[in-house]
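Dear Dr. H.,

I hope your travels went smoothly. While you were away I took the liberty of generating a structure for the chain from your last submission, since the lab meeting agenda had it listed for discussion. I wanted you to have the full record in hand beforehand rather than looking at slides cold. The sequence, exactly as received, is reproduced here:
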Amino acid sequence: MPRPMSIDDIIGIESIKLGFFKQAQKTILELQTSNMELEQKRQDVQAILNGIPDVMAVISLEYELLTVNNAFFETYGIADPHGMKCYDIFKDHGRPCSPCPLAMAKEGRCNVCRNLQILQLNGENRQIECTASLMRDAEGNPGKVLLLQRDVTLEKQYQAKYFQAERMATVGVLAEGVAHEINNPLTSISGFAEALTLRMDSLAQCLREKGECGDLLDIFSEYLEIILMECNRCSDIVRNLLTFGHKEIRSFTIVNLNDVVSNCLKLLQPRLAQLPHGTISQVLTSQEPCVLGHPGELMQVVLNLVLNALYAVKESGSITIYTSIIKDMVVLKVIDTGHGICKEHLDKLFEPFFTTKPAGQGIGVGLSTCYNIITKHGGSISVESEPMRGAAFEIIMPLFAE
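The corresponding predicted structure, in token form, is as follows:
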């Protein structure tokens, strides 16, 4: 019976066979080692992806899921999502979402496309931040999209409470002055109403006798006009305060920044009355600098900037508020001639809880709140300053055009 053929018989000459066999063994060993290293790296990468608490998915350009991490299974509870359309899983639409971060990434609008969507998870609407980035092959051609989903519902709720807490803290600062401001027209109303009451007998006698009541009628007309005017003044003060402290944010409306500036200065009138005349001046555009936003939040921004400027100038400087329209943008500036801000503090100015004020005079949430509000409105806020040469805060927001 012939013996089975071995690799030695196939290779040939003994001297060649021995060298080739050793080289083959070395190559096989190197391949096995390389495969083990690749498998270990693959496991490490998968472990990293599975350790990410956010939902992660690799999606084809045809919206089909290719790879997901453990957070996906825990969130959506789908045993085998591979090949399913992402919009069928996330929104059960039967068609791509609008706006779709994947579509934005495919169109190349930006390297990383991010938007906020409302998704229903476990029967509850949640705010999900979706981030999509295009994955390219070695030749640079787009082939897949990496999608990350992060639940920011709790973060948004805390952010809303943070904004409201800061706004109500400012309301507390304004409350004393507003109470004093309302007290003045109420005193006038009370006085003129008392004067009219004292003349009621004379008016009644004139009406009974049908005599001349010219003086009384003029007095009544004048006093009633003053009473109505003072009542309207009280209403304006209260309305401005309520607009500023209003908590509900249902939708943005058209807001004229000139009106925001005027209303803010009305609320600050009691404090401004204690300062030298001309401490605050306004240079407002004659056009209508309208933006799409929330009146209360924009009032909060302007109030914070003006209050900071008042702190900076004390009683010896001046503040100028500008509004202008440049192309399709609205610009609002608050410039003061106060003590200024040192260079090392400028980059930290909009960070939460950073303050240049002494302990007990500020907690450092005003400017960070301004930054968040303006960013939410699609705008930007910046500052330029030098020590002892004042500061200039500039806000730029998109102009609302019919």
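Two observations you may find useful: The mean pLDDT is 77. The longest strand covers residues 124-136.

With kind regards,
E. W.
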